[in-house]
Amino acid sequence: MLSLRLSSALCCLTALLSTAQAQASGLSTNASTSITPPLKPANSSRSFGPQYAIGVNSAWNAFNNEVNFQPACVVFAAKAEHVQVAMKAIFDNDVDYAVQAGGHSAMKGWNNVEEGKDTITLLPGIHWGNAVADLAPLGVAPVGGRINDVGTGLLLGGGLSYLSASFGYAADTFVSLDVVLVNGTLVTATVDNEYADLFRALKGGANRFGIVTKYEVAGCAYWDSGPRKTSIVSQLVIRSCYSKQWHTMLKKSMIQMQLLHRSTKLSQKCFPYPSQQRRLDLSHTRRFPNEILDSVTIVGQTFGAGVLAGMSGSFTSSNPYIETLRLFNNFTTTYASSGQISDVTLAFTPILDAQIRIGLARGGNAISPLLGDGGFNAIQFAVSYSEGVIDIPTDIEQGREYFLENIPNTPGLPLYINECDSKQLVFETYGGFEFLKTVYAKYDPTRFNVRHTQGPLGL
């Protein structure tokens, strides 16, 4: 049996205790005091100094690096027991908190690998680029992030991977999860033990059900040579992109297609998009997982999610894809000249019917439609702001909200929570929404999580 263990450069898990609402009562001091002694020997708790500054100011999204607010304490948790101590102190003192794993989140305020047997064990804090690189020599790939500095928190939002068409959402590969509940209790959830309901809820439940301190997931083998008999698409991503740099050079935006698949034969029926606008970047999963993408410079980021049913037919003005592209072009045309935006992306990621059925076969998740028939497309609307912009300009925010309010989402299909706006009611679009509400009430009867840490709305 071969064992491989990774740890992140800073810590396995970073917990930030936010105490803005508790300052007047002195609870923040109590919480920090009760956390510090048990963790002191492990050097896991910091309220000042260089390590504290790194923990507070190193998020991928510059808007999550709090400029006018500093947490009372940062816990650098190296193991589940550290999370238990921290979470119990937070719960007992009734203070706000947030959790930072890889730090790759566009939602303001939301924020190693051990391989053996037939599974991979992931400890929070490591980035997918590290996991992919260190597992590659073993011929094993995790169903995980598509960008190198995305963290393991991607799994709790479902997780779209280059391998999702063949293996489902990344969360569909869960085998077991170690979870610290809001009262500090550590439990292990699997598909068929007493915490099976929690196990399923964590497949899309984001940060609302506890802090996961260990993920055991199914790995998948990949190949580096040899012909394949099939040409099953593993992932197709289409992006309509505005970049200040590209626009200066080319005087126009770009539409880019990225297809990873199992052979060099490409089907002509890839995606309902005007063919004359395509630029095709073709890769092969035989080289996977080395196709993971580099991240962008750390600047302010905002996301927004949409969802459209797959369709065929003419591209008339009433076509929802054309309407979505029109809204995108309207946004970039209106705000690109402001000098406060560096990049805008409209990305379409197909969620194939096969992916949905894989999730159902593995015990179900909280995301997929109750009566899914055919695939759909998850839409990401991402805006990157120019360096030095520390908050979203009011007029640009109004334009973003207009886009999100008017995108012609298909009713009955789920938004993708990892790429949503913080105000979008994503849980309400899930096929398992009623199930999530029931499970949340069971594991957090006082609604401590929704009262004290930011995250998705609706529970």
From TrEMBL:
Keywords: FAD, Flavoprotein, Oxidoreductase, Signal. Residues 1-22 form the signal peptide. Gene3D superfamilies: 3.30.465.10. Transmembrane segments: none annotated. It comes from the Eukaryota. Residues 106-189 form the FAD linked oxidase N-terminal domain. It holds the Pfam family FAD_binding_4. The keyword Signal applies. Coiled coil: none annotated. Belongs to the oxygen-dependent FAD-linked oxidoreductase family. This is FAD-binding domain-containing protein. It comes from Gymnopus androsaceus JB14.
